[in-house]
Design brief:
This protein is of the alpha/beta class and about 210 residues long. It has ten helices and nine strands.
Amino acid sequence: MSSSFDQHRYQVRFDWGVAGLSRLAPADLVVVVDVLGAGTAASDAIEAGSPLAHAALDQRFPDAAVVVRAAVDAGAGVLLGSLRTARAVAEAVAAVQRARGERTSVSLIAVGEATPAGGIRFAVEDELGAGAIIDALAAFGIDHTSPEAAAACAAFQGLRPAVRHLLTAAGSGQQLIADGARDDAIAAAMVDAASAAPRLIDGTFSAAAISGE
């Protein structure tokens, strides 16, 4: 049964965390956006020739792992997204749609950070990462976006010149800097710097096929 909050009328949807994923109507693809975590790490691992195993997420990126598991259980194809892979992820989604020969729905789920009370801290980097992917999807004609997705896209478009500053100044970036990993935050802010779109294939996040499946 549909609800007022499931965004089923739209091809491109956006929400936060596992609760957001369960709130949305089932989608053909789910893009789990974790800019300072799994999304960037997976693309880096692929480009280094060592694709990231799904099982490795539990220890390294538990918040992303929970969302990925829920998406798999829902029967969706799963990709990991970040600012670095915005266009690559959009191109992979477009390739899936071409291969299927029909309209393909996609839910973008920002991971944020789980809180001790069981909620989610809304992480600005994941909002911007989702917005960047939604913006890139539009370039491939996948632009029937929900209001929630459109707002995330507009946030990225308006703030793109300040993305590096925002990632280093926001809470997650400040935590990385305090841990001596400022360069990681700066690298994560480089929009479209990576060409590998991590898609879950046989238990491993490998480079998504672009020419077809």
